[in-house]
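Handout, page 2. Input:
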Amino acid sequence: MALVAGLAGCGSTGSRKSERRSGASGQETIDYQLSGLGERRAGSMGEFIDSLIKDPATTEKAKGILERAKRDGGMSATDYERSWADYKQCMLDRGYKEIILIKYPNGIYAEPGHYRGTAEQEAKQTEDMRSCMSDLFPLIELYGAQIGNPNLYSNQSEAIVDCMRRNGMVPMSYTVNDYVNDKAKDDYTKAGIDVRDMKVRECEVANNWFSSYPDDVLEHLW
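Output:
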């Protein structure tokens, strides 16, 4: 069964973490995931970059990279990769045994899940990850949009389906409703698409949707 992981990965193998909102039925969750179709995050990529720069949570270091991206017409792969490398080194400097970064075919990075530690270890890892990612969060948003959501769809599922269509992973007749229902299946092997295909998952990861499966690599952090 699939284990859905959060940003940068968290969790253990062998079970499925619910994709549903707390207390919501399956249909309510599907309806929620289909809400806001056609809406955009911004009118242009430049406007989107401005919104990230103005976000109070954006660090000064990230603002510098975002401002350069706006001047250059987009964020460079070099800035993106360097920022992920800085995150990895930050975590290693805090004593973690290994930090694995998976590079998807489209150049997007993600960190897999990890073998669970004690409650104290998990709490510290969450804090350390957030701290080390403080510069990275808005850069993930921008680079992911450039690669996987150039139309800036607000609805995550719509952005993913658009990405898969553009990459030829699904026919143009494959709808957002098809995708949402495929992802809601308890048995992923019965989905209408191969959800484990890296070309499918690259579109998901570019749009901040993280899923892991039994044969995926897991980090040994401790």
